[in-house]
Design goal:
The chain has ten helices and ten strands. The protein is an alpha/beta fold and about 325 residues long. Strands 1, 2, 3, 4, 5, 6, 7, 8, 9 and 10 form a ten-stranded mixed beta sheet that branches.
Length: about 325
C-alpha cells in the first residue's frame, strides 16, 4: 500500500484576492487516487517526497524530510500568472516510513508513471537526492524505450558506488546500472560540479560512464554561450529530458538550508538561463527539487529559492 499523505489545503496560504492573483488561490489539493483531469487539460502536478533516509545513510545533515511542505508554504505566496485553462494540482506527498527508502522510491516511481499517463507535468518537491532514482524509474515506466536525458544541477555527481547500500549519493550510479542491464545508453549531464565536493574515485566513475559535466569554474554567466551550446548538444541526442535541481549546488549565500552547504556553489542566474534552454527544447518531461532542508534555513531563504525555481518553470513550460 502506498505510503502517502494528502496535502491539507490550509498549508497553502498568503495574501487574499478575488481574482486568483496568488498561487495559494489557484492550487487544488487532491488525493493521488482521486485525480480527475479533463481531456486536453494542461495540468501541472506537484508531488512531495518526504524522505531524508538517503541523506542520513550518506552522513549528511538530516531535515530534508520537511522540505516539501516548506517549499509549498513559500510557493503559495507567489503571484499567479498561469492561464485560466492551466490546472495546478497538489497531489500530496510520498512518505518514507521506518527508514524504508527503497519503498519510498518505488512509491514515487509508481506515482510519477501515473501522473505522466494522465498527461500532467510533474514537479517533485524533496526530500533527499535519492528522489532521483524513483523519479527516473517512473519516467522510464511511462516512456519505455525512449531515450531519456538526465540534466542535474549539482555540486556532486551522486555516482557513489552502492556496494554498501543505496544513499542520496548513489542514485545516478543506480540508474547507470539499470541502463547497463537493459543495454541502454546512460545519458547524464551534471552542471556545477566541484572538485572539493567529489573524490577521485567518483570522477573516475563519471569518466567511465561517459558522463558529461561542467565544473563550477565554467558554470556561470561569463561562460553562458558555452553552457547553452553544450546543453543544446546534449538535448539534441535524446527524446526527453528529466531535470533535477539539487539545492546544495547553489552557494550557501543563496541556499543555506540544505544537507551539504558550501559557499563555493553556483548562482541562480546561470540555472535560470539553463532552464530556459531546456524548456525551449520542448523535451522537458518532468522536474524535481532536491535537498531542501528547512532545519538549517535562514529566514526561509532556501525555500524561497526553491519556490522561485518552481515558479519559473511553471510559468515558462
Amino acid at each position: 500500500m502506498l505510503a502517502y499523505k494528502k496535502t491539507p489545503p490550509e498549508l497553502w496560504s498568503g495574501r487574499a484576492s478575488e481574482q486568483k492573483l496568488y498561487l495559494h488561490e489557484k492550487v487544488h489539493c487532491s488525493a493521488i487516487d482521486k485525480i480527475e483531469i479533463a481531456e486536453n487539460q494542461k495540468t501541472i502536478a506537484l508531488i512531495g517526497y518526504a524522505c531524508d533516509e538517503g541523506v542520513k545513510r550518506n552522513q549528511g545533515r538530516i531535515g530534508a524530510v520537511n522540505g516539501p511542505d516548506a517549499i509549498r508554504q513559500s510557493l503559495g505566496k507567489f503571484p499567479n500568472h498561469l492561464a485560466d485553462d492551466i490546472e495546478l494540482l497538489d497531489c500530496g506527498t510520498i512518505l518514507c516510513r521506518a527508514g524504508k527508502m527503497e519503498q519510498a522510491q518505488e512509491d514515487l516511481s509508481q506515482t510519477i508513471a501515473q501522473l505522466l499517463s494522465l498527461n500532467t507535468f510533474p514537479i517533485v518537491l524533496g526530500g533527499g537526492h535519492d528522489i532521483a532514482f524513483g523519479h527516473y524509474q517512473g519516467i522510464k515506466k511511462h516512456l519505455g524505450n525512449k531515450k531519456i536525458g538526465i540534466i542535474n544541477f549539482d555540486a556532486h555527481f551522486d555516482l557513489r558506488l552502492n556496494t554498501s547500500g543505496n544513499t542520496s549519493g548513489t542514485p545516478f550510479y543506480q540508474i547507470a546500472q539499470e541502463c547497463q542491464k537493459e543495454g541502454a545508453v546512460f545519458n547524464y549531464m551534471c552542471l556545477g560540479i566541484r572538485r572539493d565536493a567529489n573524490d577521485k574515485i567518483v570522477f573516475e566513475t563519471a569518466d567511465s560512464l561517459n558522463v558529461k559535466y561542467l565544473e563550477t569554474a565554467h558554470f556561470n554567466m561569463h561562460y553562458l554561450e558555452h553552457v547553452q551550446l553544450i546543453l543544446m548538444q546534449f538535448i539534441e541526442d535524446v527524446d526527453y529530458v528529466y531535470t533535477t535541481i539539487d539545492l546544495d549546488g547553489f552557494s550557501s549565500a543563496y541556499a543555506p538550508g540544505v544537507s551539504a552547504p558550501s559557499p563555493m556553489g553556483f548562482a541562480p542566474n546561470i540555472v535560470l538561463e539553463s532552464l530556459r534552454v531546456i524548456m525551449d527544447s520542448k523535451k522537458l518531461i518532468s522536474l524535481d527539487i532536491a535537498e531542501m532542508n528547512p532545519t538549517y534555513d535562514s529566514d526561509g531563504q532556501t525555500a524561497k529559492l526553491a519556490a522561485s525555481l518552481v515558479h519559473y518553470v511553471m510559468h515558462h513550460k
